[in-house]
Specification:
By secondary structure, the chain is α/β, with parallel strands linked by helices. 49% of the residues lie in helices and 7% in strands. It is built from 29 helices and eleven strands. The strands form two sheets. Strands 1, 2, 3, 4, 5 and 6 form a six-stranded parallel sheet that branches. The radius of gyration is 55 Å and the shape is elongated. The two termini are 97 Å apart.
């Protein structure tokens, strides 16, 4: 009906202009031009009583089947003339529709205007925030110091000519208004108070070490095995964040030395030097001394730890014991920490321990300095390693004599690893026949019972095969042949390290006959000077360590020897590339010695020199090798080529 009402309006006005008053005037006219019309109106229809459905759907006077479909305006004009629709009601309906359309249009225009105004104000506010070259336009914001500080910070963040885009522009605008309006509003109390009541029970302790408990170490073997054990224990103590009790040394039936840590090394220097890394105490606290460590499961033997154990082993198996009992005792501890993979700091700590923290006691330093002075024929010159080995005793007090050179002679230190324990354990033969075999077998039964049992239950390599593979220690006669082939002449001064060479003086006769200037510490020191060290094999070995390390050249006969490994590593660390070390390849030498009856001396010289020369290559520490022997690595030394 609404569409009909609107479409009728122009047609109705045109009809009224042409026909006068329209339907109303026609009804009041006295004379009708058509009688038919009058008779029709003689029975007028009352629209008031007509149902709504009939009002809303008037009949088509032309019939529904007519093919002619008149327009809505024409239809209502006819109906108005026929009296089916009231003219006044129709006019009211038309006026209402027009008013509704105008009102709806005004509301839409107003809504669009309000939205445009809101967007304009919002854009204006954001442009003030983002534009660093313009200030805020609000007077009350300019007078507010807190708001100005916000403005200045925003300007600092956006010092560009063009405004910077941000996804938080609207939220920033709201924050500016909120801070400006709430400047006098009290801040929440929890902003300035720690919200957790238990927070005060925590305190800083990252600078403390040893909170997990105490590590006790009883090291086995000789001085060199014990030295490795101590440095490994230091690294394990750091790994487990524990406190180290000053290590103890077990009495060995082989070495027969009751010396303890303080008899060989300076305890105070050891503790002070490592203080930044671990905490070291002399003994367990009183409350732990009464514990039966074996009963509570705190004793860990060497057999329970695999050789070259990784740090993960200690974290998985040892740390829980430490947490439970507060103490762990490593009994017979030795080489029980792998060389790789090890965290950088732990590897560096091992180097710091071996090359810096372990210094001999003054008694050993003084005797060592005396040996060095006599090996250099009382010369006043000092070796590059003297200071690190003998400390203040490196400064000689000898007065210069007129007409005599003060330059000391060079000397070679030789570690002839041919003691009975080494010979027996190798399972090799050294030309002594049945008597030698019986003697060595008896020694193995006493000192190496496990090896004796292995010989009975398993098929081992023959002595000839072992020698061909380079697994036998060099005999004194093989050693002297090597030195002669390398070019050392008869006048060379030699220091022989080691004690109680198997076979005694008769076995050494070949060495002394070819090199008459060969001496030992027993030859260089008087009986009174060496007396304090007698019956202390580890302290005597410390003197050998000093002389071999400080020598102008050092030759080893067994690269697997702990003394030779530690000496060669020390010479690399402090030597600056000026301390040569001879490391023979025993497998290649064994092949050369097999032809001793047919080979010419010149050929023998050439082959020996080539075999030894190949071992002098300078290289970084191979993966898995000991840092004590190969310190050329980033954890221990710095390379100038990388700078």
């Amino acid at each position: 009906m609404a569409s009909i009402g609107i479409s009728i309006e122009p047609n109705a006005k045109k009809k009224e202009e042409k026909e006068g008053d329209g339907v109303g005037a026609e009804a009041r006219a006295p004379d009708q031009p058509n009688g038919c019309a009058r008779s029709f109106h003689s029975r007028p229809l009352s629209t008031a009583n007509t149902p709504r459905s009939r009002q809303s759907s008037p009949r088509n006077p032309f019939g529904s089947s007519s093919s002619y479909a008149p327009s809505n305006s024409f239809r209502f004009g006819v109906m108005e003339r026929l009296g089916l629709v009231s003219g006044s009601k129709q006019r009211k309906r038309r006026v209402g529709k027009v008013w509704y359309r105008k009102r709806a249009k005004g509301v839409a225009v107003g809504a669009v205007g309000l939205l445009a105004c809101f967007l304009l104000v919002n854009w204006w506010m954001l442009s003030r925030i983002q534009d660093s070259n313009r200030g805020f336009g609000y007077g009350f914001l300019r007078a507010n110091s807190s708001t100005l500080s916000i403005r200045e910070e925003l300007i600092k963040l956006g010092k560009v000519k063009r405004p910077q885009k941000t996804i938080y522009a609207k939220l920033l605008a709201k924050a500016v208004h909120a801070l400006a309006e709430g400047q006098n509003k009290p801040e929440p109390r929890e902003l300035w108070v720690e919200p957790y009541l238990l927070a005060s029970t925590w305190r800083p302790c990252a600078d403390q070490r040893g909170d997990n408990g105490y590590i006790m170490v009883s090291a086995n073997g000789g001085i060199n095995q014990q030295r490795v054990a101590v440095c490994n224990a230091v690294a394990v103590t750091r790994l487990l964040n524990a406190t180290l009790v000053v290590p103890k040394f077990l009495y060995s039936s082989v070495w027969r030395d009751p010396s303890q840590f303080g008899d060989i090394y300076q305890e105070e220097h050891f503790s002070n030097y490592l203080k930044p890394d671990i905490r070291i105490v002399k003994e367990l606290p009183q409350e732990l001394q009464s514990l039966d460590l074996e009963a509570i499961g705190s004793v860990v033997t060497d057999a329970e730890i695999m050789k070259e154990a990784k740090p993960s082993f200690y974290l998985k198996h040892i740390l829980p014991i430490l947490h439970r009992n507060r103490v762990v005792h490593f009994v017979g501890y030795g080489n029980r920490l792998s060389s790789d993979p090890i965290p950088f700091q732990l590897q560096r700590l091992r180097c710091r321990c071996n090359f810096h923290a372990l210094k001999f006691v003054p008694k050993i330093q003084e005797a060592g300095a005396l040996l060095l002075k006599r090996m250099r024929q009382n010369g006043r010159n000092l070796g590059p390693l003297d200071h690190y080995l003998v400390g203040p005793f490196s400064e000689t007090k000898m007065k210069r004599k007129k007409g005599r050179s003060t330059k000391g002679s060079k000397f070679l230190a030789l570690h002839l690893r041919f003691e009975i324990d080494m010979v027996a354990h190798s399972l090799c033969e050294f030309g002594g026949g049945d008597e030698e075999r019986r003697e060595l077998e008896s020694y193995r039964e006493i000192h190496f019972p496990a090896l004796t049992q292995l010989k009975k239950t398993a098929k081992l390599q023959s002595p000839a095969t072992l020698r061909a593979e380079g697994l036998c220690p060099l005999m004194p006669e093989e050693t002297v042949l090597m030195l002669a082939a390398l070019g050392f002449n008869r006048k060379t001064h030699m220091f022989l390290a080691g004690a109680h060479i198997y076979g005694g003086k008769s076995r050494l006769a070949v060495l002394t006959s070819l090199y008459p200037n060969l001496v030992t510490k027993e030859n260089l020191l008087s009986s009174s000077e060496i007396q304090p060290f007698m019956n202390f094999s580890s302290q005597l070995a410390a003197l050998d360590f000093i002389v071999c390390t400080a020598a102008d050249a050092f030759a080893m006969t067994d690269s697997g020897s702990q003394l030779s490994s530690l000496v060669s590593g020390y010479r690399v660390y402090y030597g600056g590339g000026k301390m040569p070390t001879i490391r023979p390849n025993k497998r290649r030498l064994a092949d050369i010695f097999l032809k001793n009856n047919t080979i010419e001396w010149k050929v023998f010289e050439g082959r020996v020199q080539k075999a030894v020369r190949q071992t002098k290559r300078v290289r970084a520490r191979p993966v898995g090798r000991s840092v004590y022997r190969y310190p050329r690595c980033k954890e221990c030394m710095c390379s100038t080529e990388e700078e």
